Amino acid sequence: DKIYYNGNIIKREDAKVDIEDRGYQFADGVYEVVAFYQGEPFTLEEHMERLVFSAGEIDIETPSAETLIKEAKNYMQETGYADRNAKLYVQVSRGVASRSHAYPDGLEPVIIMKAGPLNPNPEEYFQEGVKIITLPDERWSRCYIKSIALLPNILAKKKAKQADAYEAVMSRDGFITEGSSSNIFIVEDDTIITPPATNYILNGITRQTVIDRLAPELGYEVIEESIPYYTLLKAEQVFLTGTTTEIMPVVQINDKVVGDGKVGAETKEIFKAFRELTGFVRGK
Ligand code: PMP
């Protein structure tokens, strides 16, 4: 296994974290996960631009998105994933400094990348749909930043797994926000609705792909508006979006069946269009 570490490609066992790395001590950093389909990156530009944006929002200076794109492509070529389905994890931590809440100016960020297998969800999840649970959103109010501080998200995902559910979808003040690692859409009377990209959600690149590319191509309008929790519970169709989630139909919310319990026509079409766009081939 090879790791990208501040511009160098090194062996996994040589990649070490300093115990005073602020990412390690304070979750002081940002990240991205990018899918590669048979070696071809999917929306790599968008991910690297979001990484630079997230870093900027917490006062971390990174190399340009163009530089990061070049570095990521070059790194992937050096791994065993050059022509496979893979995911690339990219993390930027503020850097190493003697532990103190206020960070010193001018720290050198620590940038790491790690390639791994894509590990797509089983095909039956996409064909039959999955269950989700609902939870209160206990996160901070700057969820538009893709921060490595993910405690509420990991605890929510664990609760979902314990309930045999794929995802935990959160709500704040009576309105749904997003899943612990995905965005959410509902379909009502041929209209696709998703919560707006406020500070309370991460504006997913898969979400944006549905809004900008897939829905218009299929002739659907997407409305970005707040969705009350009770509207979610009576929605006819529900689906999740995310880099590793892809387009995931939801057929059960807590103990309640969604619609007739089958994957709806619009959801199926969007899933199919997404697969065509990414060029995903199972087993590669
Ligand atoms: N929301 C959260 C909280 C996430 O962690 C993710 C996955 N990174 C998403 C939404 C989906 O974003 P994307 O489509 O860019 O993977």
TrEMBL record:
Which cofactors, by name? pyridoxal 5'-phosphate
Q: Name one GO biological process term.
A: D-amino acid metabolic process
Q: Which reaction does it catalyse?
A: D-alanine + 2-oxoglutarate = D-glutamate + pyruvate
Q: Under which EC number(s) is this enzyme classified?
A: 2.6.1.21
Q: Which UniProt keywords apply?
A: Aminotransferase, Pyridoxal phosphate, Transferase
Q: Which GO terms describe its molecular function?
A: D-alanine-2-oxoglutarate aminotransferase activity; pyridoxal phosphate binding
Q: Quote the InterPro entries the UniProt record gives.
A: Aminotrans_IV (IPR001544), Aminotrans_IV_CS (IPR018300), Aminotransferase-like (IPR036038), BCAT-like_C (IPR043132), BCAT-like_N (IPR043131), Class-IV_PLP-Dep_Aminotrnsfr (IPR050571), D_amino_transT (IPR005784)
Q: Which Pfam families match?
A: Aminotran_4
Q: Does the keyword Protein transport apply?
A: no
What do the Gene Ontology cellular component annotations say? cytosol
Query: What is known about its subunit structure?
Result: Homodimer.
What does the protein in this record do? Answer: Acts on the D-isomers of alanine, leucine, aspartate, glutamate, aminobutyrate, norvaline and asparagine. The enzyme transfers an amino group from a substrate D-amino acid to the pyridoxal phosphate cofactor to form pyridoxamine and an alpha-keto acid in the first half-reaction.
**UniProt similarity note:** Belongs to the class-IV pyridoxal-phosphate-dependent aminotransferase family.
Q: Which PANTHER family match?
A: AMINO-ACID AMINOTRANSFERASE, D-ALANINE AMINOTRANSFERASE
Name of protein: D-alanine aminotransferase
Q: Which organism is it from?
A: Halonatronomonas betaini
Lineage of this protein's species? Bacteria, Bacillati, Bacillota, Clostridia, Halanaerobiales
